[in-house]
Amino acid sequence: MSGRGEKAPSQRQLRVGEEIRHALAMILERGELRDPGLQGVSVTITEVQAAPDLRHAYVYIMPLGGERSGGELDTVLQALKRARPFLRRHISKALSLKFSPDLHFAADETFDEADRIGALLRDPHVAQDTARLPEEDTNSHDQDD
Question: Which residue(s) pair with 106 in the sheet?
Answer without folding.
Answer: 60
